[in-house]
Amino acid sequence: MGLYHSAQPVIAAGAPLGLRFLDPTPMNTLYGAVVAKGGNPEGAQVLLAWLSTLEGARAYEAAVGRGSPRIMGTETAERVGTRKLVEYAFEDAGTIDKLDAELTQLLMTADKKR
Hints:
By secondary structure, the chain is mostly helical. 51% of the residues lie in helices and 4% in strands.
């Protein structure tokens, strides 16, 4: 159980982990923003536009191990394949926080029982 991109460094280090994508596959949208009063908002717009291309998405995926299942040609899109993608609505952030806190507590309790 966990996030695909979070497991990549551990797998690369040789951990005997397997991956399975569910159907439907839960996901979190990658967001980007431009700060209007930032040092170079026009440059930020160009960067965000490039990240939404196949070249930019592949570069981001190679750098951080997290790709976009919505940009065909990325490793993530190929792994997800034809599975249905689902995610919580932005308005449900409170629910996500609550579930995350409960899961974290369960994992911390399990670790102490070892």
